[in-house]
Amino acid sequence: MFWKKSALAAVLATLMALPLHAAPSEAPPSQGSGVWYEIFVRAWYDTNGDGIGDLNGVTAKLDYLQSLGVSGIWLMPINPSPSYHGYDITDYRDILPQYGTMGDFERLVQEAHKRNIQIIMDLVINHTSDQHPWFVSALDPKSPYRHWYTWAGPATDINAPAAAGDRAWHAKNGQYYLSGFTGAMPDLNFDEPAVRHEMVDVGQFWLRKGVDGFRLDAARHIYDDLKSDTGKPETVRKNVVWWTEFRQGMQRVRPDVYLVGEVMQPSMSDLAPYLKPLGSVFNFPVAAQLIKSAGSEKVDGLDTLLSDTYRSYAQAAGDAFVDSPFLSNHDQDRVLSQLGGNLDHMRVAAALLMTLPGRPFVYYGEEIGMLGKKPDANVREPMRWSREPGVEGESRWKASSVKQGGEVSVQAEEANAASLLATYRTLIHWRIEQPLLRDGEFRAVESGNARVLTFERAEGARSVLVAHNLSGKAQTIKIGKAHASMQLHVGGNASLANGALTLPPYTSVVIQ
User: Fold this and answer.
1) Which has the closest alpha carbon to 92: 56, 132, 63?
2) d(CA 252, CA 34)
3) Which of these, 358, 327, 360, 326, lies nearest to 457 by C-alpha position?
4) Treating both helix axes as pointing N-terminal to C-terminal, what angle do 193-208 and 233-251 enclose, rounded to 10 degrees?
């Protein structure tokens, strides 16, 4: 949804006037690759033989993540929950017993930090489980938790559609309550001061346990509950005020806390207001276009989208943000499935992602080419570690919904220098070898070729030129004299002579 300029201006004016106690939240200090890796613990690695991935399994595979080159891990929900996915929490200060103990978690944080790998947790505070003691108590109109949730009154339209789902109002014990996703996830009422205080306290609790920040689930739905709320400047303003309050609370414990928000919106205009209060949001519009361009083998507006995005973000937040590009996550079809199983297109998409500004996120299994299409459980299947199924350590939380042989596994691809895993490892390490790819600004460069995307990553007078041949045919473009030496390449052997750059099919290069 695209906003009218007047509405966006009103929100941004309010945003710029908000008080800040400290510098905005930022990504961790620039070191390593700056690449983050999303893990569904249940599907990751099992250390106690029950078939369920656990926190000790994450610790056991830290060396793999370190060899991949990632700088941080995002753990999907690890709190107690009645569901397999964990997005309906019953206790915000404990660990799901299937995943282990608080001691296991603290050990994971310590071991990750020893390897210069940081950890952010999924923080799900828009709603609780309907089995949370707060909600169970709130069913009694006299409960002290009654106002922690929103209840329908005589004039409420209980058939009103939700902003994020089918219906907004659900019944229990003859009472209707607001629950924008499913009836099992009643929305918390953030107009209640006690709720706001509690959620700041929850975040501070985990920061004291050593986490480096949070991925903030459903960040725009704190106040965007009903379909009729969506797009209203007042809705966004209230979201922004809350997240500013939350960030200030986190900075009292950890000034450099890293926050990244899930703001599922199709345009940069909709994302921009959240940059200043959160510091980072997932870039859904760019993710969709990266996959589209890789699949079509055409730039197809990607260059314009990137330029407009970074310009819009800078106008909204100045330097007070870091972008979080990605290709897919746990709510979407896996990248290779979106690309019809075409590994060449997958490599191009990965190369595009790893040369963009910000802190890219990789969904587990993306680096080995796992397939998966919704429903959700099918895109959250066990990580494929071994050639043979059923090997000790493999998660068995659900059977595979796709037919992929043992060649799609870490074990098989580790031994193959031409594997997708090898390509991902190379690309991630590019960001270590060439810090401009990690921290430089984006400068558009016109290639003059609809099949070749070019841009610079620059800092002051220093710059590198990035060129991607999106197509299955060799392409030649002219480049300026400022860039004369090939530094990095993936794909075929590119050549540079007399200002002419020739790129073999599906090849990406960095030129100094």
Assistant:
1) 132
2) 24
3) 358
4) 40
CA–CA separation, 467 vs 511, rounded Å? Answer: 8
Per-residue confidence (pLDDT) for residue 415, from 0 to 100:
92
Cβ atoms of 504 and 473 within 8 Å: the answer is: no
Q: Whole-angstrom Cα distance, residue 194 to residue 190?
A: 8
The H-assigned helical ranges of 377-512 are 410-414, 420-433, 435-439
Instruction: Give the HSE-up count for residue 81: Cα atoms under 13 Å, Cβ half-sphere.
Output: 21
pLDDT of residue 319: 82
Q: Which residue has the tokens 């994450």?
A: 58
SS3 440: coil
pLDDT of residue 321: 85
Taking the CB of residue 37, how many other CB atoms lie within 10 A of it? 22
Burial grade of 212 (CB within 10 A; 0-12, 13-18, 19 or more)? buried
Q: Report the candidate in 236, 38, 263, 279 with the shortest Cα–Cα distance to residue 164.
A: 263
Residue where the block lists tokens 């997240």: 243
pLDDT at 269: 79
148 within 8 A of 50, measured Cβ to Cβ? no
**Amino acid identity, position 52:** I
Q: How are beta strands 475-478 and 500-503 bridged, if at all?
A: antiparallel
From CA 260, how far away is CA 243, in angstroms rounded?
11
Looking at residue 13, its pLDDT comes to 47
Q: How far is CA 83 from CA 94, 217, 301, 328, in A?
A: 15, 16, 40, 22
Running DSSP on this structure, what letter comes out for residue 273? G
With beta carbons less than 8 A apart as the criterion, state whether 81 and 90 touch: yes
Angle CA 342–365–392, to nearest 5:
130
Q: Residue 453: is it exposed, middle or buried by C-beta count within 10 angstroms (0-12/13-18/19+)? A: buried
pTM over 0.90? The answer is: yes
Residues of the chain scoring pLDDT < 50 = 1-30
CA triple 402-405-406, angle to 5 deg = 130
Please report the sign of the dihedral spanned by the C-alpha atoms of residue 451, residue 421, residue 284, residue 336.
positive
pLDDT at 3: 39
Residue 173 near residue 139 (C-beta atoms within 8 A):
yes
Confidence at residue 31, expressed as pLDDT on a 0 to 100 scale: 64
The residues that are catalytic are: 217, 262
Q: Strand, helix or coil at 252? A: coil
Burial label for 399, CB within 10 Å (0-12, 13-18, 19+), is exposed
Percent helix, strand, coil in the chain, to 5, is: 35, 15, 50
